[in-house]
Amino acid sequence: MENLLITILLTSIPILLAGTGELISEKSGILNLGVEGMMLTGAVSALGSVLILGNPYAGIFFGALAGILISFIFSFFTISLMTNQVATGLGLTIFATGLTGLIGEPFVGKTIPSLPKIEIIFFSEIPFLGAIFFKQDILFYIAISMIVLVHFFLIKSRFGIVLRAVGDNHESAHSIGYPVKKIRWICTAFGGMCAGMGGAYIPLVLTPHWSEGMTAGKGWIALALVVFASWLPFRLLLGALIFGGITILQFVGQARGWPFPSQFLNMLPYLVTIIALSLISIKTRAGNIYVPSCLGKSFFENN
Amino acid sequence: MLLHIMVNLNSKILLKANNITKKFGNFVANNSIDLEIKKGEIHALLGENGAGKSTLVKMFYGLLLPDEGEIFLNEKAVSITNPKLARYFGIGMVFQHFSLFPALTVTENILISLDKNFSKKELENKISDISKKWGLSIKPSKKVNELSVGEQQRVEIIRCLLQNPKILIMDEPTSVLSPQEIKNLFKVLKNLSNSGCSILYISHKLNEIKEIAKTVTILKTGQVIDTLDTKNVSTKILAEKMVGKKVVKLKTKRSFTKTKQKVALLVNNLSRTKKNLFGVSLNNINIFLNYGEILGIAGIAGNGQVELMEALSGETTGIKEEIMFEGKPIGDCKIDFRRRLGMEFVPEERNNHATVSDFKLNENTFLTFFGRYNINESFIKKMMTSANYSYEDSIEIIKKNDVRCPHENPMAKQLSGGNLQKFIIGRSFQSNPKLVIISQPTWGVDIGAATSIRQQIINLSQNQKAIILISQDLDEIFELSDKISVISNGHLSKIKNKQNISPTEVGLLMGKN
Predict the structure, then answer these.
(1) A220: number of CA atoms within 13 Å, CB side?
(2) Is the ipTM of this complex over 0.85?
(3) CATH assignment of A2-114+133-285, given 1.10.3470.10, 3.40.50.10190, 1.10.1040.10, 3.50.50.60?
(4) Which DSSP category does B348 fall into?
(5) Of A102, A175, B269, B350, which sees the most CB atoms within 10 A?
(6) Using CA atoms, how far apart are residues B148 and A20, in angstroms rounded to an integer?
(7) Which chain B residues are Cβ-neighbours of A180 within 8 angstroms?
(8) Block means of pLDDT (10 residues each) for chain B, length 513 residues?
(9) Do A177 and B82 touch (CB under 8 A)?
(10) Quick check: A286 and B276 CB within 8 A?
(11) Chain A: nearest CA to B84, how far in angstroms?
């Protein structure tokens, strides 16, 4: 039981991280469909840097850095050149899939050391919960605390309110003197950093070797998750756990010999994604006030 | 003259624009503008759409930089490079299209526009203080999308007042308010001016300017035409200076041939639930309209006008018996069917609703008249139909209605708002309809074009056509209508004859929720 819960938690960390980043970027009005691509970039950079430097912590740093750098491509096109965000995001994912395949080629077949687990003294002694929550790796702690931080940041801090304002009405934000484009660059970079770390988590903790396209659609799930969570951080955490659970369900099913074809179990997470998105879109049509009004719209400065 | 100079010496000049010029490409939006605003003065800036009013004040608020010229504050030359700096100098601005964030609360909206940092609690107290002091009641914890337009404007004003401005710029502040709200606003503005705050008041409404402002500067095509004391000048002279020519009066002499009044349109208990959070539900709407009559529907924007228009035109459909046209139930019929019966519609949105912006005028004509051309031809010929069929019609519409085009057959987006509206209304009259429903025909249109559009409407009704006129402009409603009703929060008030209802009554109905 303990092990099962830990596995679910760990499986949900990559989508949680990527989802957190995307949430911030969408709150500022930027719909970045390149999450999958940014995660792949983070994964391959983390893996490569650990292979070269030998230290798993280097993987976190370079995964995050690579995520930020590749998000700059997206920002340059959509924010500076004002291209269509959907098309550019899709392009970014396709581009990154190819690029990471190329970069990852020499890493195939090599294994890297995992991120060490860190015990938090005292708390890890708590029976049952201690082993689940307080004997994990550093990225796990970062991901969980990030949710709390993002929640308070968005609601309480001045910059958080400005960020929401930019996503709600960029014309107004501009007219009272906020640098809309700069804020969006920063938010997209944050999204890239989180996606990069989420991607890095996969080789650093889950499967310690490279295979092409190893994120296996987690970026898309993260995107769906943000909508599912109606742009609220704590719902994002809940959603990530549900998706993590469903992903693990297929392994449990296979191990216990459930009478479903394994293909069906494999497609469960994606199926749930589609169902969740459909349900949400019905709700959205009736007027979901959490949707940032400027989501996906380019901001033209000269008027 | 001497007296004039004395006055100037006595009152301190707060803001001075000297020789300001602003160009966008080849277009000169502001051409060497001089302007002086004294301390505590309400100074009006009058001009038609496109006269350069907004461009000028955007430079005062740091949203645009002048190409030439200087701005002086308290006799010191300043360069206002961004809104933050403008606020620092004591310049506040209330925008025509509010710069608020619908998803944020009132407090949050105000918080992010202040340059000092407050905690939410502190700020909420400050907001309550200010709103009590100036009579601008508001609930700080409410989300802006739950507020009425008038309340939203209060938020904008409070936001400015919190920064103790020395000068407050107001861009067309009354265009969305009911008469009662306008009265309140004017009270606030007068109090502010008495307390020493200057106000730069932008408007194209002459009566308002006479009522509120002490001085008025008239702009036309980017140049200052004149600066006058409002006491010594009539609205007629103001209008002529603004337009640059004599204003034509409407020929409203209407021959009432009350002999045979046939019922054109009957609407019975029309109801529609709103489609989304920001929509308005229509509630038991009843309309009775004879031929030869104009029914004016007044109301503040966002009270169900759009929804009513959609229901009447057939963009949304409902129960058969809800709408009867000449005794025929058509409530479940689509727009095209209603058109063929002789109904025509002029929706509020000129671009991309009434016309396709990127289409040429003849193509736009074709879209409306689709199915009327080569109707007797074979199936194949019908399928091969082309927009060239509508070319002559389109030219005729342009000529008949004095639509000024840059060339013979421009795209819809190449016309100015007024000319496009003349085209759209002309197009709807072209097919000789029996009933025309028009929404906000002169919204954002200059006086010249507005007069000719109103004349078009009157001419049509004299030909015994039935007309429904939905408008926010009370003067327009009273000028054109025979019967008047008010839409408020999806309810339509009882239809009354014009003689039996006063503007004050209409104003009260508009403000009712």
Answers:
(1) 15
(2) no
(3) 1.10.3470.10
(4) S
(5) B350
(6) 34
(7) none
(8) 46 87 85 92 86 89 91 90 90 83 89 83 89 85 82 87 90 80 89 92 86 91 89 85 71 56 88 78 91 90 88 90 91 88 88 85 84 68 71 87 82 82 89 91 80 88 90 87 91 91 84 64
(9) yes
(10) yes
(11) 6
